[in-house]
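Please check the following.

. . .
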Amino acid sequence: MRSKSDNIAEYILYLWQMEDYLRAFPQNADATPELHELNEMMHREGIIEGGHLALANNALAELEDLHRSLLDEDAMYRAALIRLTPQLNLLKAKTDRPTMSDIEACLVLLYQIMLLHLQKREITPETAAVQKQATEVLQFLSKTYYANSRTV
């Protein structure tokens, strides 16, 4: 399984992808020990039909905490997020959860773009630009998380 400390954003996206995979192909849940373990966790947590594993939710909460602290401490990070906020607000308005956090919206955006690529569908240049901005924000958070996890 991917390591949360190596890249927490990729870790969350990976867990979301595995959840979707197990929902789409439940008969293959025993394909690997890792998938079997995740499938068992989904059953225990009652998220077979929808929702996210506690592992993913906890990692997202950690990322949110780091995000909040960086908003107070890092002017460059705050400026990058301010530039991205209008596009995130548009994305949130199109979802069934318009009050989701900016960080979750960044992750949802990247996950949706990944799904479009898997379907071999094109994305617009505007979407690609927002993807780049969201990726930069999440990369900064992940690198900071990694650095902080190495100092503990």
User: Anything to note?
Assistant: DSSP finds six helices and no strands in the chain.
